[in-house]
Amino acid sequence: MKNISLNKGFGALWYPLIFGLYLCCTPAQANNRLRQMQSTHQQNQISGTITDGTNPLPGVTISLKGKRNNTVNSDFNGQYILSATATDTLLVSFIGFKTAIVPIRGQKIINIQLQEDMTSLQEVRVNAGYYSVKESERTGSIAKITTKDIEKQPINNPLAAMQGRMAGVNITQNTGLPGGGFSIQIRGINSIRAGGNDPLYIVDGLPYGSQSLVTTSLANGILPGTISPLNNINPNDIEGIEVLKDADATAIYGSRAANGVVLITTKKGKAGATHFNINTATTIGKIARKTDLMNTQQYLAMRREGFANDEIVEYPDYEYDVNGTWSQTRNTDWQKELLGGTSYSNNTQASVSGGSENTQFLLSGTYRRETTVFPGEARYGKGALHSSMVHSSGDHKFKLTFSADYVADKNTLPGIDLTNAAYNLPPNAPALYDASGKLNWENGTFENPLAFLESTFLATTQNLISNALLSYKLSPAWEFRTSLGYNDIHLSESLTSPSTMFNPAYGAGPEYSALSVSSAKRNSWIIEPQLNWAKKWGALEFNALAGTTFQMQKSQQLSQNGAGFVSNSLINDLAAAARLSIVNHELSEYKYNAVYGRLNINLKDRYIINFTGRRDGSSRFGPGNRFANFGAIGTAWIFSKENFLNAIPSISFGKLRVSYGTSGNDQIGDYQFLDTYQVSGQNYNGIIGIKPTRLFNPDFGWETNRKFEAAMEMGLFSDHIFLTFAYFWNRSSNQLVGIPLPATTGFTSLQANLDATVQNTGIEVELRTINFKKSNFQWISTINLTIPENKVLAFPNLEGSTYANTLVIGKSLNARKVYHYTGINPQTGIYTFEDYNGDGKIASNDRQYVVDTAPKYFGGLSNQLTYKNWAFDCLFQFVKQLGGNYLTSSGFAGVMANQPVEVLNHWPQDGAGAATQVYTSGSNSDAVIAASRYSNSSAAFTDASFIRLKNASISYQLPTPWSKSLSAKLYLQGQNLFTLTHYRGADPENHSGLFLPPLRQYTLGFQISF
User: Which CATH number does the domain housing residue 162 bear?
Assistant: First the structure.
């Protein structure tokens, strides 16, 4: 008999009962329950803004937890939009910040502030040229600044943004005029040749010529030194600058990397909605420091005493300042009159960017206009256009990156810098203008310095840089890439010297007017196919690349002079000149070919070894020496990942790295090994002849550089303290210099490889600390210090060469031999110097005292503070060095030229403690000769160390609650704000009293994005 369970029977009735009750519910209850079920699964548009607490963060990855196929990136404003349900959770990740996990919980607008993760900054990839590498895994020495550092400074040249910010990189500004140059040394000077120490510049993969096209004879009166070619690159378009310093980082560039590599990467578009950005700023500039010169009373007293010492009672007719021709009471501050103006600079940039996941674009334009502190209408204008496109196929196998930059500038300056005149004009010199407003010549007695403004130096440049990078993923392990680059630069210069710049007393008309013109152009192209391979087996990872380079460069220059014009109104027309001459007309061609490779082995993400190599061929060397091999090995041990350090949690990161290798130098110019000829310009029986200019040397070969580095990187307390300590050793040999030849050969030297050796060693220290970090306030400090040492280790037969008075074995290439000043003779009041050879007289062979102007150490200290919408940044630059003081550019005490007030301390009034010898009007030949030696003695060099507030910037992010797509920022910037120094001169940076020093500048700007 079957047992019937009552429980089981009633249990079966529950299902229809529940279903029946459900059917009995009211429609409102049913609809409400249905809406609840739908809302749980309904897709909504979630939007918001991602920030770091102060600024929006573009490129942030936003995805849904568990749904990785639904991923978007924030746009330029940090904004994002994606579809999600009410119960989804956002995963927000960005390099350098901690990943945020944010439940949606029915919200439709979610603004997220990411917290910076200093440890993850080690995962940032840095550009090493042909490849990129994680910061934590790099085996080479690479310094970097980004667009955030550049945009805080009112600069026109990218090199200015690097000053004081990179260990091992010493940069000096040559002049405060727009379009001027900079000198850069990466870990010291390697080559004895002055023109052989420039680094290799790479702009978006394209080698950019470091040799200036400017004709020195035209520009040397107003723009000293070599004019930097980077003036033709717009700083506003730069995303980042990396400097490769050691052998591991530079060897892959082979023959061109002996002096380091500067990699410049321009900005690219980012995926997201179309974004517009407008940035406009106005800068005013003034001279930062004046020299304390004599006033009229002091100056005339010096002049009269000089004549009295020379026993001259009646002042000559031509001594207008003291004989009563000029006012004896007029007192003019010529520094204020000639250099005391205000320079104005206006800079405006507009850009549009955006794109989809597969295609991003960026288009920007910049216009800059700048004046000088000189009187007159000198001005500088620059226009720049930057475009970029990045495209990848749907399967992400094919990728194209294209960029093009076009910059055109026009620089109109006086033919001669007025700085030296401002320091030397007598304070009682006449007024610049007469009663009718014309130039005052004071009846022919006054050489009016404003006459220099009649002479005009004009330079116009057009520069095009374009690059395309194509890559295709052949398989997960193999990728093929090709880089195609083209550069075309044109430069036109002219220097006018009209007769109106001469004193009318000379009676010079337009027949004495002159015009010098020069036109130059350089174009180059490069093709670099490359194959990459990456594979990982367990804990072992391999990365390899192999490639080849084909490069061609052509340069052309034509320089002409014209003199004698019917009218000065025709001075800019060379065809109107009565006399024409061709100064220089040359065409040169440079060809370069190379193969290169890299193999990187990474074991357990902690033991890394990196091999790089390159075989180069250059047309600049003889047939048997055109090819050379360069290579390096770099190793790194990330010891912080070892298990035995788990017990020390304060060590968040630690790495030891060592590298050794070779690189080369072919910066010698074209055709230097050949026996070349030049048109003589001499007419013989109607025939223009030629003359030999260089002797053939088939053994002419590469200058080589060996580099070693050992470094340690350590992060403490989650990288809140991060220290880098490096020691470097570089030795350059086989120097490309001219070997002196006897005059009987008809040549002064033979281009050859000299067995001379130059060594650079040094210590670099970098320290970054997070001093304070809260949600609304953050303070980060960074300091870098470099202690370099440069030595000439060997130079065969130095004493018999032309370098005998400029080089010293065991001293730096900045050392020079001078007279050793020993004081003032108490009987004659004349400077005395050490008689090294003991022959009882002072002559040129007594210039044996060595002064060294190489920096003893240099560096920078920066602070970054943010508080809510406010941001403050400042950079102090410091240098310890010797430099030439005012004596190197001023006349001797007593002649018709103003002097610093220090000259008042003179003999005999101040006796044995006097700093200046007896005054003379120029008739005391012994005093004149001694003054000349004095300006070339140890007394002419003084402490030129300085601490300078190089840059300060404060900005405020304006709140825009009425629009989530709009952001605006107001900022104030300062450059060269103040300098602490004991230097006896105008500026301790460039040690020159002949050219305008860097200006103190203030910038007010406004940026708006929408």
Answer: 2.170.130.10
pLDDT, one tens digit per residue, over 863-906 is 999 988 899 999 999 999 999 888 877 778 999 999 999 999 99
Task: Note whether 94 and 133 are same-domain residues.
Answer: no
Q: 897 lies in a domain?
A: no
Strands 112-113 and 44-51: parallel
Q: From CA 96, how far away is CA 119, in angstroms rounded?
A: 8
- Nearest in space to 287 (alpha carbons), one of 200, 176, 397: 176
Q: Give the residue carrying structure tokens 């060469």.
A: 801
Query: b/e string for 767-791 if b means 16 or more Cβ within 10 A?
Result: ebbbeeeeeeebbbebbbbbbbebb
Instruction: Give the mean pLDDT of 826-836.
Output: 93
Return the closest-CA partner of residue 712 out of 653, 769, 642: 653
117 band by pLDDT with thresholds 50, 70 and 90: low
Q: State the DSSP code for 328.
A: S
Handedness of CA 508, 510, 511, 517 (dihedral sign): positive
- Cβ-based neighbours of 105, under 8 Å, separated by 6 or more: 86, 87
* 36: CB partners within 8 A, 6+ apart: none
Pull the structure tokens for residue 94: 């960005």
Mapped onto helix, strand or coil, the DSSP state of residue 519 is strand
- pLDDT category at 266 given cuts 50, 70, 90 is very high
Which candidate, 258, 217, 102, 329, places its Cα nearest to that of 705?
258
Q: Residue 502 — pLDDT band, cuts 50, 70, 90?
A: very high
Give the least confident one: 14-28, 142-156, 264-278, 975-989: 14-28
Span 931-943, average pLDDT: 92
Give the domain-ending residue among 245, 266, 287: 266
Residue 675 CA to residue 698 CA, distance in Å, equals 10
Q: Please enumerate in sequence order all residues whose Cβ is within 8 A of that of 172, keeping only pairs 6 or more positions apart, or say none.
A: 182, 183, 989, 990
Q: Are 80 and 60 in contact (CB under 8 A)?
A: yes
What CATH number is given to the structural domain containing 111? 2.60.40.1120
Find the DSSP H helices in 643-788: none
Lowest mean pLDDT among 191-195, 247-251, 423-427, 1002-1006: 191-195
The answer to whether residues 65 and 128 belong to one domain is: no
Please report which confidence band the pLDDT of residue 664 belongs to, taking 50, 70 and 90 as the band edges.
confident
3-state secondary structure 338-368: HHCCCEEEEEEEEEEEEECCCEEEEEEEEEE
With vertex at residue 910, the alpha carbon angle to CA 909 and CA 913, rounded to the nearest 5 degrees, is 160
Flag whether 391 is in a domain.
no
DSSP state of 853: -
Neighbouring residues of 515: CB distance < 8 A, sequence distance ≥ 6 = 494, 495, 496, 497, 561, 562, 563, 565, 571, 572, 574, 577
DSSP string, 226-245: PPPGGGGS-GGGEEEEEEE-
Distance in angstroms (rounded) separating the CA atoms of residues 139 and 856: 27
Amino acid at 1005: G
> Read out DSSP for 123-138?
G-EEE-SSSEEEGGG-
* For residue 612, pLDDT beyond 60: yes
Domain count, the chain: 2
Residues 127 and 252 in one domain: yes
Q: What CA–CA distance (Å, rounded) separates 327 from 321?
A: 8
Q: Reply yes or no: is the peptide bond before residue 908 cis, omega within 30 of 0.
A: yes
Cα gap 828→175, rounded to integer Å: 40
Q: Are residues 84 and 200 in the same domain?
A: no
- Strand spans (E) along 812-881: 815-818, 821-824, 831-833, 849-852, 857-867, 870-880
Burial of 902 (0-12, 13-18, 19+ CB in 10 A): middle
